[in-house]
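re: ur question from yesterday

yeah so i grabbed the chain u mentioned. its 508 aa long if i counted rite. heres the sequnce exactly as i have it in my notes:
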Amino acid sequence: MLVSKTITEFNAIIKNTSQVDVLFGYCYPSTYRAGMTGLALHILYSALNARNDTSCERYFRYQTQSPVLSIETGRPLRNNHIIGFTLTYEEDILNLVQMIEMGGIPVLSIDRTAEDPVVIVGGPVVSANPEPYTDFIDAFVIGEGDVVIHNIIESVKDAESRDDVIAAMAEIEGVYVPRITQSSVSRNIIIDLDSLVYPTRQIIPDVEDGSAFEPVFGKSFLLEVTRGCGHSCRFCLVGHICQPRRTRSLDCLKKLVETGMQHTPAKKVSLIGSSLGDLDSLEDLVCWIVNKGLEVSVPSLRADSVSENLLDCLVKGGQRTLTIAPETGSEVLRKNMGKGLSDSDIYEAVGYAERVGYNSVKLYFIIGLPEETPSDIASTIHMVREIANKTSMKVTVSVNPFVPKAQTRWQLEPQPEIMVLRKKIKEIEEGLRNTPRVTVETLDLRSARIQAALSIGDRSLGKVIKAAARYGGFGGWRRAEKETGVPFFSLANNTERRKENLPWSFLQ
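ran it thru and got these structure tokens back, copy pasting raw so excuse formatting
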């Protein structure tokens, strides 16, 4: 058990640093709660500490004693040989830069000396487009890092200097080093998930249910069922950069649960993966977990993969909210974006949930999609009303603006102006205002604009990021745009960018 001033944890690992060769600082540039929900943290932490030659300790931007002192021992951030960040959300780049600076490490990679740690970053954001962040990062892991992380550790052990480490990283497949010319960089994709070593002794915070430190899925064992997605919706990043879709076998998954429950103090299994419903044996797995007396939860499910028996087992396992993503109420637009769900698929899934005892449903919609018409917005309003009228469940409607993502088939499509998006949101809110049991949630449109710019931007955004990190908040981005003269907030709706070379075109 690990005890700090704020958090008590089970299964944290503390090593004698005099007996290891490499000190690795794993950093999550957001809250402890968000970081501990992420599977990447558990996979990398376990893999690194399984090595006799490496000590990995964790750092978080918020909710800990200090963002630059490790959870485990208070090891200063700059005392590591390598500090590695997972960047899951574009806007967290400000937290990342702030953590580097607060740790006494030069913010710009070009200013670092032999005494400074090597800074590496992985995650979906940089796997799609690392170019906006090259000013701050020494090396990027493109794709999946389960195996390549060991090559990175070996490069540190074998090198005689910091420069040698960085040069050696450029020779590792799937690692992008901005300072070294690389004509192309391939993406790491691991085909056989069953062959991977998986963390069964996961860290669990010993906190009360509902605590601010509790992971999003609660105190649960995270079980990665699938990677990638076989649907490739035109807007979706996962469906493009994580191809092909891969699954663990049912036997392997059962063994991981049995072992995990022996070593992880939890009574719940949270299934992780995109488009989980496409797993042939999902119903068998869920019902098997429930029959062992465990709770179980799943993220969003494709409506056309839901069965009444599956949902019945999920209810028995403690899940009470069905989450599905119609994306739009228009069947035509849904088909155009590659989603391929019929209206009847969606209504049928909601009906199953009502019958087996769910008490709420959450629906995700996107506005501002390419070729979207006023009738498409009206169709979304109609769909929500139909669902609310046909059930007694609480209905939460999450409405999010279209964000063009690098590497997707809609990467060149412009994001509508904020005034246009605001009008669409207002129309949906007013259209559902008097509908019983319906709540509408929306993303701040400034966040959508920031995410889009960072997703499709190039190296010119580095100076905007540096200035925005100094000021913080939405106002900081606006002030940084004004100071640098870089048209940051208008980048996403600039159709002229289609004529330019794509900054991420070297990624294979």
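noticed a couple things. The two ends are 43 Å apart (CA to CA). also The chain has a mean pLDDT of 94.
anyway ttyl
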